[in-house]
Amino acid sequence: MPLEAVIFDMDGVLVASEDYWLEARIEWAGNLGKSWTDDDQRACMGRNTIEWAEVMRERLELGDMPLDRIMTEVTGLVLKRLDAHLPVLPGAVEAVHRAASAYRVALASGSPTAVIRHVTQATGLDKVFEVMVFGDDMARGKPHPDIYLEAARQLGVAPEHCAGIEDSGNGVRALHAAGMIVIAAPSPNFPLAPDVLALADVQIASLDELTLDLLQSLGQR
Questions:
Q1: What is the reported pTM?
Q2: Same-domain check for residues 107 and 208
Q3: For 137-156, how does the pLDDT look when each residue is reduced to its tens digit (9 = 90+)?
Q4: Per the count of CB atoms within 10 A, which of 25, 62, 134, 147 is most buried?
């Protein structure tokens, strides 16, 4: 079926911010005398803000600590790092422009709105994406398909005519559940499990591989 739109995740796809989120959570947990592991981090990846705050509260055994405090303080630590250095992944901005030359393009990220706006404005991609859907606006985060279905709805494109690019297991599952073409672009630091990779239509090592030829071929499957 013909491909009409390409939807990008942000953290780990356009910017190498997953490390910032990991560092921020380690720092924040450490200030409370707690530890934060890679497994804990994987449980948060792809989820919206309220959901990852709930994961943190549960895993760190923080009782009834207000979720707003967790969200605000951890997000603040991430924004501090982004202000110091924006880790745009090689070929990311070019890949979005390349896709936009032939397809409708959107962003669907579970990150807090403040983080998404910071990244897209700093890179100029806020002027390229036709639609941006924020995790803060969704009742359910990834692996539920809601954020991708909402992006398709706002674009006015049927989900089966959309392709999405994801680096996380929760994100890949969300794309698959949405009925979209799944492009997996996993981070070497957070490799995807074999059962997750099996859900992808194609795997790429970097966004340099997200060529118009590849997108066209995916639309012909």
A1: 0.89
A2: yes
A3: 888 989 999 999 999 999 99
A4: 147
